[in-house]
TrEMBL record:
Positions of region (Disordered): 21-42
Chain ranges of the OCT domain: 348-428
Assembly information from the UniProt record: Monomer.
Protein family membership: Belongs to the TRAFAC class OBG-HflX-like GTPase superfamily. OBG GTPase family.
CDD domains per the UniProt record, alphabetical: Obg
Segments forming domain Obg: 1-158
Function: An essential GTPase which binds GTP, GDP and possibly (p)ppGpp with moderate affinity, with high nucleotide exchange rates and a fairly low GTP hydrolysis rate. Plays a role in control of the cell cycle, stress response, ribosome biogenesis and in those bacteria that undergo differentiation, in morphogenesis control.
Binding site for Mg(2+): S172, T192
Subcellular location field: Cytoplasm
Residue ranges of domain OBG-type G in the record: 159-330
Organism: Sinanaerobacter chloroacetimidivorans
Name of protein: GTPase Obg
Length: 429
């Protein structure tokens, strides 16, 4: 099954906690602190891998978590860093942050990679908090938080040439004749419901050709599977527009040609700007006195396109068409290619996290509730049996203006202050 869209959740590893430890050795009465730092949590990394062709695996597994960092240990030993989690995707995959809708990375080539969620930093051991005043710190720093995200993966096929046209005009047949691909072929609408790829080898060159499933009117609005199909045309360099010039389906070839180009134009405009060769297929089904091909050719060439008469099942005219496609691709290789324009996710802003040090105050009845990311980290680092550690927590709350905020909200001596699941009685100094 070809799967070209998936939603998953990712989570990096939490940083390991710093260790609280003191040297305990014979004949060393004042050994001092020796708690080591925690290890950094593992990152979540996406990388493009040529061995993959579909997002099928993400249908069965939707949650991905990197390894947490190990806690620090005594004797100043650092905790082990968490293993990075590497998620492999096919080249051509666009990784999107679901919350913002912004593109995090467009993984076009084999080996392209990026860090989608960074692991939390390891917490500092108590050896880092020793100073001239505090000789025996009885607390350490908690590990940094993990990052969680919901991710949307979208796969856009990477092919040199895309075959476009209405259903049942002979695209799959042309692909099978021109390449080693073996698509399912039959005489009914929407024979192809997923894109097929094949490699064309002609003269001294080769290129990848994709059979894009048949489009219908209104495809650009999402009719049928239109949007799913149109996005696969975006990365192609050249289009071969296959038209049933015999009208075997009861449609007019010129109208078919115009309707497909209208869908390309309505999708965004740039699809219609791609170079396009027109394959007038099913020539073997036209009677000698039928002028439909001549009328079609005159009309299309009047629009500036080159028309190639072919009969795909009997391989008539196919080599000439493929030769023209190869020549056009060589010309395009010498021209600068227009890159896709995305609104990219701001990783720098994400790392800064302006709200990280803010302390938020909420009054619930007679209780003042404090919250904040840095507050949570310091709170988790606090040793409630150590007066120095408790003083450090209070000074942080006071320094960030939370005491003043609570007083403005009516805080008085004896009132209750709550942080996480702990409640404290406020006492004026």
């Amino acid at each position: 099954m070809f799967v070209d869209r998936a939603k998953i959740s990712i989570k990096s590893g939490k940083g390991g906690n710093g260790c609280v430890s003191f040297r305990r050795e014979p004949f060393v009465p004042e050994g001092g602190p020796d708690g080591g730092d925690g290890g950094k949590g593992g990152d979540v990394i996406f990388t493009a891998d040529n061995n993959l062709r579909t997002l099928m695996d993400f249908r069965y597994k939707r949650k991905y978590e990197a390894e947490n960092g190990q806690d620090g240990m005594k004797k100043k030993r650092f905790g082990k860093q968490g293993e990075n989690l590497i998620i492999k995707v096919p080249p051509g995959t666009v990784v999107i942050d679901e919350e913002s809708g912004m593109v995090m990375k467009d993984l076009v080539h084999d080996g392209d990679s990026f860090v989608a969620a960074r692991g939390g930093k390891g917490g500092k051991g108590n050896v880092n908090f020793k100073n001239s005043v505090r000789q025996a710190p009885n607390f350490a720093e908690a590990g940094g938080f993990a990052q969680s995200r919901n991710i949307v993966l979208e796969l856009k096929l990477i092919a040199d040439v895309g075959l476009i046209g209405f259903p049942n005009v002979g695209k799959s047949t042309l692909l099978s004749v021109a390449t080693s691909a073996n698509p399912k072929i039959a005489n009914y609408h929407f024979t192809t419901i997923t894109p097929n790829l094949g490699v064309v080898e002609i003269y001294d060159t080769s290129f990848v050709m994709a059979d894009i499933p048949g489009l219908i009117e209104g495809a650009h609005t999402g009719a049928g599977l239109g949007l799913d199909f149109l996005k696969h045309i975006e990365r192609t360099k050249l289009l071969i527009h296959v038209v049933d010039v015999s009208g075997s389906e009861g449609r007019d070839p010129i109208e078919d040609f115009e309707k497909i180009n209208e869908e390309l134009s309505s999708y965004g405009g740039k699809l219609l700007k791609k170079p396009q060769l027109v394959a007038a297929n099913k020539m073997d089904m036209i009677e000698e006195d039928d002028k439909r091909y001549e009328d079609f050719k005159a009309y299309v060439e009047g629009k500036g396109y080159h028309v190639f008469p072919i009969s795909a099942p009997i391989n008539q005219g196919v080599r000439e068409l493929l030769g023209a496609a190869a020549a056009e691709l060589q010309k395009l290789a010498l021209e600068p290619q227009e890159e896709e324009v995305y609104e990219f996710f701001d990783f720098e802003k994400d790392q800064e996290d302006e709200d990280y040090r803010n302390i938020y105050v909420e009054k619930q009845g007679n209780i003042f509730v404090l919250s904040g990311k840095q507050l949570t980290k310091i709170f988790n680092s606090t040793n409630f049996n150590d007066i120095g550690s408790l003083r450090y927590l209070y000074k942080y709350i006071e320094k960030n203006g939370a005491i003043d905020k609570m007083k403005e909200m009516g805080l008085e001596e004896g009132d209750t202050i709550k942080v996480q699941d702990y409640e404290f009685e406020y006492v004026e100094e």
